Automatic annotation (TrEMBL):
Keywords: Signal
PANTHER family linked: BLR6548 PROTEIN (PTHR47235:SF1)
Domain Leucine-binding protein per the UniProt entry, residue ranges: 40-360
Descriptive protein name: ABC transporter substrate-binding protein
InterPro entries: Leu-bd (IPR028081), Peripla_BP_I (IPR028082), TAT_signal (IPR006311), TAT_signal_bac_arc (IPR019546)
Family: Belongs to the leucine-binding protein family.
Leader peptide range in chain numbering: 1-31
Organism: Piscinibacter gummiphilus
Keyword Translocase: no
């Protein structure tokens, strides 16, 4: 007896009232799908709760918990409460595979959301696609993961290609042409490097240096010296995690005024950067979580406060993701299945979470937003675009 049939057998056996009749066993509709019970819907997640992106991963999970708590307090979704189950992968793709495979095998999640990392999502998306499991809001903009055959994957954020194009063009428009590129030494960083080289070539430029930064940042001092030695007029960072912080601190000791610009995921450790955060620039794909003029930001912070959770603001993206998946679940109806959820997500048009409007494309690859702005950190540590 396979896993799925065994689970359904046990479910039926526990409901003795559903006796065998002319139509055979009667199965409660709520038991028909993994991660769904009469009272709850569970969404799965594997993310970095430790390691170089541990602080970011923790913030994302807290944001989902706060969003779900707020939704549940208001009655849940179609009479069910929402739950998030997260497993730590330390930003290591093999651990992500292990975590996701376990949740698929034990039937504990209806869908997945907010998995962090290009290599991590790259490792599990073929698996979730084969199983027909919706994945919402991967925390990566890798173009390599936006494929027509990924019909169950729904990206909220713009692509890194969009971000790189906008940021490099901005540097060139500012007259900064001697650009050094630092990239994380993994699939994410290498893809960003290739995009950056392409955009520079379109501007008839070439990077004065292309420098690999170890995922754990152990070579940050050497990388900073390479930047200085290249006599770069500006630095573009295709990096993320605590290693980026180490690099910036080393670079500020050697070249304090050198312009530095990164991606939307580059600066994840703003507290440790302290005064060195001022003047750093980055791609902005969501409203800044510190700018309270935005309704989505005010609602995010109110939700976090109501849940008694603190935030650095990094989790705003996953808080938005939580609103999107809740809306899709509402539209999928009481008898929710993965296929109904997938169809509900694919049909989302002009769904607004404050100032963020989600419009999924008509066919895969599904992408909900495309706007990219340039943001600069001020002396108060707030990113303004």
């Amino acid at each position: 007896m396979n896993r799925l049939n065994r689970r359904h057998f046990l479910t039926r056996a526990s409901h003795g009232a559903a006796a065998l009749g002319a139509a055979g066993w009667v199965v409660p509709s709520w038991a028909a799908e993994d991660g769904v019970t009469a009272k709850s819907i569970t969404i799965g997640n594997s993310t970095a709760l430790s390691g170089p992106l541990g602080n970011a991963g923790q913030d994302h999970i807290k944001a989902i918990q706060a969003a779900f708590a707020q939704i549940n307090k208001a009655g849940g979704v179609n009479g069910r409460e929402l739950k998030i189950v997260s497993k730590d992968d330390g930003y290591q793709a093999p651990r992500t595979v292990e975590n996701v495979k376990k949740m698929i095998d034990d039937g504990s999640a209806l869908a997945f959301m907010s998995l962090i990392g290009t290599p991590n999502n790259g490792a599990i998306l073929p698996m979730t696609e084969k199983a027909g499991i919706p994945v919402l809001g991967p925390i990566t903009g890798a173009a390599s993961l936006r494929k027509p055959e990924y019909k169950n994957t729904f990206h909220i954020r713009p692509s890194y290609t969009d971000e790189v194009t906008r940021m490099v063009q901005q540097l060139v428009q500012m007259g900064l042409q001697d650009i050094a590129v630092v990239y994380l030494d993994n699939p994410f960083g290498k893809e960003v490097l290739a995009n950056t080289q392409r955009v520079l070539a379109e501007q008839k430029l070439k990077a004065v240096a292309s420098i690999a930064l170890a995922v754990d940042g152990k070579n940050h001092a050497e990388a900073a010296q390479q930047i200085v030695d290249s006599k770069a007029g500006a630095v573009f960072l295709g990096t993320t995690g605590t290693g980026t912080t180490d690099l910036i601190l080393s670079l500020r000791e050697k070249a304090a005024g050198l312009p530095v610009i990164g991606l939307s995921v580059t600066f994840t450790d703003t507290k440790r950067l302290g005064k060195h955060l001022q003047g750093l620039a980055m791609a902005s794909v969501f409203p800044s979580a510190q700018v309270m003029k935005f309704a989505v930001v005010r609602n995010f912070h109110a939700s976090m406060e109501a849940a008694g959770l603190t935030t650095t603001g990094l989790g705003l993206e996953s808080w938005i993701n939580a609103q999107v998946i809740a809306e899709a679940l509402r539209r999928a109806g009481r008898d929710v299945t993965r296929e109904k959820l997938r169809n509900a997500l694919a049909g989302l048009r002009n769904f607004e979470v404050g100032e963020v409007a989600i419009n999924f494309t008509n066919a895969a690859p599904y992408v909900g937003t495309t706007a990219v702005k340039l943001g600069v950190f001020g002396p108060d540590g707030i990113l303004r675009s």
